[in-house]
Amino acid sequence: MKHATFDPTSVCALMPMGLIYDDDGIIQFVGPTLGKLRRADTLIGKTISEVFSVRDNGRGTGDGPVPLSTKLYLNFTSGISTPLKGMAIAIDGANLNILNLSFGISILDAVADYRLTSGDFAHTDLAIEMLYLVEAKSAVLEETKQLNARLQGAKVAAEEQAYTDTLTGLKNRRAMDYVLDRMLRGGVHFALMHLDLDYFKSVNDTLGHAAGDTVLQRVAKILLEETRGDDMVARVGGDEFVLVFNKFVDHDRLMRTASRIIARLEEPIPYQDTVCRISGSIGITTTEFYASPSADKMIHDADLALYGSKHDGRAQATLYDPGRHDGGMPDGQVAPQRR
Length: 339
Description:
Blueprint: H1 8-14, E1 19-22, E2 27-30, H2 32-37, H3 40-43, H4 48-51, E3 52-56, E4 59-60, E5 72-76, E6 83-91, E7 96-102, H5 107-114, H6 126-162, H7 173-185, E8 190-198, H8 200-207, H9 209-225, E9 232-235, E10 240-246, H10 251-265, E11 269-271, E12 274-276, E13 279-286, H11 295-311, E14 317-319, H12 322-325
Parallel strand pairs: 13-14
Antiparallel strand pairs: 1-2, 1-7, 3-4, 3-5, 5-6, 6-7, 8-10, 8-13, 9-10, 11-12
């Protein structure tokens, strides 16, 4: 054979996506990378037109010879129709031709479709550089994505911390202000319950602040258990709490809820080898008392009702009464000191 001295292996080492075909268009040798796209034994012996549809600058070549030394556009005729670019040249005196192929802009799809690696490309192929850039870009994007997720998580955690009382896990005054503002702007009907613990100071004074912390955590648990998921419980002072009952303004039911909370607060709270005893006084108001309710006014009125509970003997709940409380404490009394 005239091409006996021709070494196709060396040629395809430089052009792993290449193939060699004779002047009749019959494929004689397939490069290793092209062999990963289609098994070599299924290509050798077939004509170029059986394996590819070939266009020369947009014109189909049909079953005619592959144009030489010009840009070609090819697609596999079966299987994954990977778009390819190529150019064919003749091997002088050998009755053979080399068709060198590349992926062009479809390289990323091809790498994914055929699980190609850098070893499937010639070392001088600029596609390798592009793949490295794409890989680097993907790594940067993934790292940026993870960083953004961490930052978002940190932001959420910081916002949650900013709205949370660290000792009890309840909402704090800032959160209460936000919730009340949102509900009032939305025209939501709700009740506001102001709770102040009775005898809490004596717990701190006799047993220490650690005992007081234990009591506050127990109180928080009780309040959460006595409210619903869309209600809010906030610790707004050392031993002061505000409960906001969403769309719950029935006075009788509110008083029953308050009585139940007080009864639970009076249960002894174990601490080390003793128990802590407290109670609670509550003042209640609802949006139904106001033509145009405001947070400051409702908190003030619930506080007046709370002072009424303290004045009447503690361990009880008082519903705000505009006729009684708007003039201040009854009978000119001074609000008692909370203990």
